Amino acid sequence: MSENTKNKNSENIVDNIPEKGPLNFIVGSITSFLLFIFFYFLSNKIAIYFSLHKPSNSSEIVQNISSSINTLIIGLSFLLTFSFAFIGIGLFIVFIRSFFMKKN
User: Fold this and answer.
1) Which residues of 52-89 are buried (b: 16+ CB within 10 A; e: fewer)?
2) Rounded CA gap, 33 and 91, in Å?
3) What is the Cα gyration radius of the chain?
4) Residue 62: which residues within 8 A CB-CB, separation 6 or more?
5) Coil vs helix vs strand at 101
6) What is the DSSP code (8-state) at residue 58?
7) How many CA atoms lie within 13 A of 16 on its CB side?
8) pTM for the predicted model, two decimal places
9) Could you read off the pLDDT of 3-61 as tens digits, one per residue?
10) Under 8 Å between Cβ of 88 and 82
């Protein structure tokens, strides 16, 4: 392929990407908030499950490992939950900001 053909292909790809507008931002924000709410309830149920079902092994090492894994699972589920919340907040801020930006 010649360099001229490569430049035309890359320009066509850039030209074909539609610009994101306020509708895209608000739909993404609402979707993210809905996922936040879903995973919040799921994370609560995970935390309640692990608090009611304590590891009961005779070996102290196995109990420590089991407790660590339970803590890791609970922590990761809440990390996922609040990641969706912050993404939703960020997209909502970009949605508001898109009304104040002037098009070139």
Assistant:
1) eeeeeeeeeeeeeebeeebeeebeebbeebeebbebbe
2) 10
3) 23
4) 55
5) coil
6) S
7) 6
8) 0.74
9) 555 655 666 666 677 777 888 999 999 999 999 999 999 999 999 999 998 878 888 89
10) no
